[in-house]
Amino acid sequence: ANTPVDGAPTSHKALGRLGTLTDLVVERLRVSDDVAASKFGTNSPIDDPAREQQVLDQVRQQAGTLGLDPESAAAFFRDQITASKVVQSGLFARWTARPDEAPTTRPDLGQIRTRLDRLTTELLGQLKATQEVRGSRVPCTVQLALATGSATVLERLDALHRHALDTAVHSVCTGEAVTAA
Ligand SMILES: C=C(O[C@@H]1C=C(C(=O)O)C=C[C@H]1O)C(=O)O
């Protein structure tokens, strides 16, 4: 599926019925690189509880409109937030240890958050679209392994982003984010 993010088309890459969902999860992790670049060397902390609350409020509201259980959707997004902070702290550590690898430009956090808000809507759409397959535990586990495995190869994820991806998808098949309202 072609999902316009930031005006630019992104092509569907990861395989199987959870491929598009996984692509969006990876996209959000990549945006976390930009978040880290916007905060590194500034007073902005990696942890921003007020912003997290705003993200989760948007999630609960839009989930309800879609007929997804708001708390299950919020649980999925708490994992996305945890995964984003895994990426951010990993990159902070990397850039502190090797300043030559640190970003030389500082993107605007406000613009990045607008992009994250659009990804929230797209991710919720995919939670809705995958409700059926996510509800069947064994097929879901197989599809998730296929999607994350192919995304890891095709997107050339490094160890940090692979670890963050595992964190981000860990409740996809557990029923946590599955239930209809
Ligand atoms: C991505 C950010 O960093 C953290 C992660 C968040 C997220 O994944 O949505 C929200 C707030 C921060 O705790 C941010 O500050 O926007």
Description of the structure:
By secondary structure, the protein is mostly helical. It is built from 7 helices and 2 strands. The chain has a single domain, classed as Chorismate mutase (Chorismate Mutase Domain, subunit A). The chain has a two-stranded antiparallel ribbon. Helix 1 packs across helix 6 (137-154), helix 2 (49-66) packs antiparallel against helix 3 and helix 2 runs parallel beside helix 4. The protein is globular, with a radius of gyration of 16 Å. The mean pLDDT is 92. The structure holds the ligand C=C(O[C@@H]1C=C(C(=O)O)C=C[C@H]1O)C(=O)O. The ligand C=C(O[C@@H]1C=C(C(=O)O)C=C[C@H]1O)C(=O)O binds at residues 35, 47-48, 51-52, 55, 80-81, 84-85, 113, 116. This is chorismate mutase.
The biggest beta sheet is recorded as: 2 strands, antiparallel
What string, H for helix and E for strand, traces the elements in order? Answer: EEHHHHHHH
- Radius of gyration, in angstroms, nearest whole number: 16 Å
Number of domains: 1
* Name given to the CATH architecture: Up-down Bundle
Structural class: mainly alpha
Q: What is the name of the CATH topology?
A: Chorismate Mutase Domain, subunit A
What molecules are bound to this protein? the ligand C=C(O[C@@H]1C=C(C(=O)O)C=C[C@H]1O)C(=O)O
Percent of residues in helical segments?
A: 55-70%
Task: Give the total of beta strands.
Answer: 2
Name of the CATH class: Mainly Alpha
| Low-pLDDT windows of residues | none
The main sheet orders its strands as 1-2
Give the termini separation. 26 Å
Quick one: overall form?
globular
Pathway: Metabolic intermediate biosynthesis; prephenate biosynthesis; prephenate from chorismate: step 1/1
Keywords: Isomerase, Signal
EC number: 5.4.99.5
Enzyme class: isomerase
